[in-house]
Please model this.
Amino acid sequence: MPVGTVTQEPVRHELTSLPPDGFVTLRQLPYWDVLERRDQGSRAVMEQTKRKPGQKADDDTKMVIETYQTWERFYTFKNCIVDHNITDSNGIQLDFNKELTLRMLNPAVGVEIEKLIDKLNAEDDADEELFPTAASTSLPTQEAKASEVPEQSQLKLSTQTN
Model:
C-alpha cells in the first residue's frame, strides 16, 4: 500500500544565495497546516447596501480582499525550517521563530528558501492547478458584443468618481 502521510524526515538544501556553505534544513508541512496557512493568509469581504430611492448605484457594493503574505511566510518559515547556518552580520544565528528575522533577512535568501519550502509542500504545482492558464489572454474589444464574451467574464464593476 502506498504511504499517504507526511514525512517528518528533514531535507537539507544548499543555498546558492549564500555561497560557499549556506544551508537550510526543511520539514514538510502536514496538509492540515497547508490549509491553515491558506485560510489565515487571506480574507475576502463583500458588503452590499440597500439603495434608497434616488441614490446613485456607485456606492452600493464594496469588496475588500486582503492578503497576509507576511503572516503566511512567517508561519511557513517558523514551521518548516528545522536547522540552518544563516547568521546576522555579528555572526549570531538567525531565529526564524521571531518575526524580526524576516524583517532583516536578505531578500535573495528569503526568496530562495520560500521556493524550496513551496516545492517541498507541493505549493508550486498547486497554483497551476487552481488557476489554469487561460486559452486566450486578450481582453474583448469594446466592439465585441456582450453575448460573445464568455458568461464567467461578464462581471459588472462599479467605479467611484470623485
